[in-house]
Write a structure and sequence with these properties.
The protein is α/β, with parallel strands linked by helices and about 750 residues long. Among the domains are: about 200 residues, Rossmann fold, CATH 3.40.50.1700; about 110 residues, Sandwich (Immunoglobulin-like). Helices cover about 30% and strands about 20% of the residues. A six-stranded mixed β-sheet has the order 11-18-17-16-12-13, sandwiched between helices. Strands 4-3-2-1-10 form a five-stranded parallel β-sheet. The protein has a four-stranded antiparallel β-sheet with strand order 22-21-26-27. Helix 8 packs parallel to helix 10. The two termini are about 45 Å apart. The structure holds beta-D-glucopyranose (BGC).
Length: about 750
């Protein structure tokens, strides 16, 4: 009772202050305890007209940049007019203190209630200081470094006025053809969940209201990474078991770790577009998971429901999306045009609007925008934080740690600093744009350190031949690339240099703009004439180190069989050349492990380590088992795989199942080689028989350790019900008794095994 009186008192105070001090946002500043925030939201909601509430649910692109096709703007002829009327709750793609301040002033000073705006932007792998693409960062398996990378991105983004990033993308994907695999953490749910949490912590920090932390947004809810045939925006046909066990857990982990916002997705799930999917957004996200933040649509995803054949017009888009729990409309113009009338005619319950607005306002309160709407508008920060030396140091560190050594025959690597006659071949070796990768919207053009520049810093014995002209890049948005498929004229130059060199570093792969949104591929080979050039150079000199720069797993089967050393460098960001050179010369001993399986051929895709066993697993001599007649079932390189310049020995696997609620697994790992180095120790389980078939292997623990030469360390893991259970097709989490196999090792294919019985 006392509590009720106290809250009534606070509520009336809040209401009073709202009415007294004109309608500016400062009326609702002050303490930000959860209770007081709810009271303030209630007070504010009561003052808002229906139109103003709907305004909060509307997000506009800020004209200066676009990340998607602009839908017809007939419903928002003048976005500024809408802004001044309080019909806009958030904008995206407006950056820079001056521009942000200008729009924020309009919202705060010129609207009736002065509710500040959210400023969203795709801060995906760095803001200005571009770090490796997210798939590459995932290959580091280094959670604290991934968190730091997100932290520096938030430091820079918040310094230019941004308070909300559309990241991390936590879509699990098993299909390397899908261009957006570059933006996620790969194929594994467990690793993907941990990385998602690390990124959220990095963006949001410990105090969301600080001026250097920004709201995160997990996306795309849900199933976007399961686009059929890897074609972007395609239908996702997902079983409930896959949905609950593979796709949803990273989102659930994000919600459990206080992620402020969730973005839905373009795709259809089980016949219903994600944007209008009540089962996903209302039943699971806001229902079962008790999520308190808001859901933003993807760019125009509401409008696209007309093309999907789900909504007949924009009005129905508004109705279906609002009812299904899509709280904010990004660039569909549906809510601002039709929601008011839908509520007034009784088609949409105003309570749903209130709920959506409450969620949006809550995030604004959490960010401290009502206390100081300009807290992200500090010119001094804008000057000092961008490209801060400590940010560059993190970018270099994570670039080195993201690289995966795929092959190193006869220890050809690391190169000696005194190595004579080093040839560097390949257009990508001298490219200052491609290594930045896609989704680097704010990057300054052409500011990556090239491989050639990096190598020249460490050696004076380097010569360069570009070889075939790989691509032509159009630098303006949307940065299309044209692949050279015909002009072989550079091959002669490459071969001539190879002939007079002792060692050749060939830098091949994909252009940074060949992956990312809308960049699906039907082939996974080296694009253009690169394979032809590789074989021509190999015919002249076999002493080749292949450095791959790419945004997705590639089926480089010929190279894997013939080239003695291969380093997967991905698109490592601004410090690319330095990081690659330091790895090649052994200043850093590679420690990355693949977060996604590399196929031998595109016909094997989707290929992933944690698949089920068929009833005919084989291998068998006769034909009737689950296999291809023209290709092995094995991948080119499995999930979790990656070499080091040193070697690690695993022994002493011990399983202690005395306490069934915490099964202890330990292993001894020893550095047996001639270099100190890091190893990612991985633990996999297999539930031998369960009421829902479980995968052959599932990652359930990992630890990255550093071992000096000859050093051994014991690594301990704890398996609780959280690791041993699974979801059935009604979304119920089950932990069942029975035998479990355990494997601890250096990849999903190599390790030492044991068994225990769960009672
Ligand atoms: C993408 C989202 C992105 C949004 C805003 C869309 O095209 O799918 O991931 O956040 O654009 O830029």
């Amino acid at each position: 009772m006392k509590k009720n009186i106290a809250s009534l008192f606070l509520l009336s105070l809040a209401l009073l202050s709202c009415t007294q001090k004109k309608e500016t946002s400062s009326v609702i500043s002050g303490t930000t305890s959860p209770d007081s925030i709810e009271i303030k939201i209630t007070a504010l909601l009561q003052k808002m007209t229906l139109e103003e509430k709907i305004g909060q649910m509307n997000q506009y692109n800020g004209f200066w940049d676009a990340t998607g096709p602009a839908p017809s703007e007939k419903n928002a002829k003048n976005k500024y007019e809408h802004l001044k009327k309080g019909l806009v709750g958030a904008v995206l793609n407006v950056t820079g203190v001056e521009k942000v301040r200008k729009l924020q002033e309009m919202a705060v000073n010129e609207t009736r209630l002065g509710i500040p705006l959210l400023f969203g932007f795709d801060v995906i792998h760095g803001y200005k200081t571009i770090t490796p693409i997210p798939l590459a960062e995932a290959a580091s398996w280094d959670l604290s470094l991934i968190e730091k990378s997100a932290r520096i991105a938030a430091e820079e983004a918040s310094a230019v006025g941004i308070n909300w990033t559309f990241a991390p993308m936590v879509d699990i994907s098993r299909d390397a053809r899908w261009g957006r695999v570059m933006e996620g953490a790969g194929e594994d749910t467990y690793l993907g969940s941990k990385i998602g949490i690390a990124r959220i912590k990095g963006f949001q920090g410990n105090d969301l209201s600080a001026n250097n932390t920004i709201a995160a947004c997990v996306k795309h809810f849900a199933g976007y990474g399961f686009a059929e045939s890897g074609k972007d925006y395609n239908t996702a046909d997902i079983s409930l078991s896959t949905l609950y066990n593979v796709i949803l857990p990273p989102f659930k982990a994000a919600v459990d770790n206080n992620v402020q916002t969730v973005m839905n997705s373009f795709n259809v799930v089980d016949g219903i577009p994600a944007t209008a999917n009540s089962f996903l957004q209302r039943d699971i996200l806001k229902g079962k998971w008790n999520y308190k933040g808001f859901v933003v649509s993807d760019w125009g995803s509401g409008l696209e429901m007309i093309d999907h054949g789900y909504a007949k017009d924009l009005k129905q888009v508004a109705e279906l999306s609002a009812k299904a729990g899509s709280d904010m409309d990004m660039e569909s113009y549906a809510y601002v045009a039709h929601l008011k009338q839908l509520v007034e005619s009784g088609k949409v319950d105003e309570k749903l609007i209130d709920d959506a607005v409450r969620r949006i306002l809550r995030v604004k309160f959490e960010l401290g925008l009502f206390d100081d709407p300009y807290r992200y508008c500090n010119l001094q920060n804008e000057k000092t934080k961008i490209y801060a030396p400590e940010h560059m140091a993190v970018a270099l560190d994570i670039a080195r740690k993201s690289m995966v050594l795929l092959k190193n025959e006869k220890q050809i690597l690391p190169l000696s600093k005194t190595q004579k006659n080093i040839a560097v071949i390949g257009a990508l070796a001298n490219d200052k744009s491609s290594p930045l990768g896609n989704w680097r919207l704010a990057a300054d053009d052409n500011n990556a350190i090239t491989v050639l520049e990096g190598l020249q810093k460490l050696s004076t014995n380097v010569s360069f031949a570009r070889g075939v002209n790989f691509v032509t890049e159009k630098t303006s948005f949307p940065n299309e690339v044209q692949i050279n498929e015909t002009d072989t004229s550079g091959i002669g130059e490459a071969v001539a240099l190879a002939k007079k060199s002792d060692i050749i570093i060939m830098v091949l792969g994909e252009h940074g703009m060949q992956s990312g949104e809308g960049r699906s591929r039907s082939r996974l080979d080296l694009p253009g004439l690169q394979q032809q050039m590789l074989e021509a150079v190999y015919a002249a000199n076999k002493n080749i180190v292949l450095v791959l720069m790419n945004g997705r797993p590639l089926a480089v089967t010929w190279a894997a069989e013939n080239i003695p050393a291969i380093l997967e460098a991905w698109q490592p960001g601004m410090l690319s050349g330095d990081a690659i050179a330091q790895v090649l010369f052994g200043e850093y001993n590679p420690s990355g492990k693949l977060p996604m399986t590399f196929p031998r051929s595109v016909g094997q895709v989707p290929i992933y380590y944690n698949h089920y066993s068929t009833g005919r697993p084989g291998p068998k001599k006769e034909v009737f088992w689950s296999h291809y007649t023209d290709e092995t079932n094995k991948p080119l390189y499995p999930f979790g795989y990656g070499l080091s310049y040193t070697s690690f020995q695993y022994s002493n696997l011990k399983i202690d199942d005395g306490d069934q609620s915490k099964i202890k697994v330990s292993v001894l790992v020893k550095n047996k080689g001639k270099f100190s180095g890091e190893e990612v120790v991985q633990l996999y389980i297999r539930d031998k028989a369960a009421s829902v078939v479980r995968p052959l292997k599932e990652l359930k623990g990992f630890e990255k350790i550093n071992l000096s030469i000859g050093e051994a360390k014991q690594v301990d893991f704890l398996l609780t019900d959280a690791e041993l259970g699974f979801y059935n097709s009604t979304g119920q989490f089950l932990v069942e008794p029975g035998d479990f196999e355990i494997m601890v090792g250096s990849s999903s294919e190599k390790g030492i095994s044991g068994v225990f019985n769960k009672k």
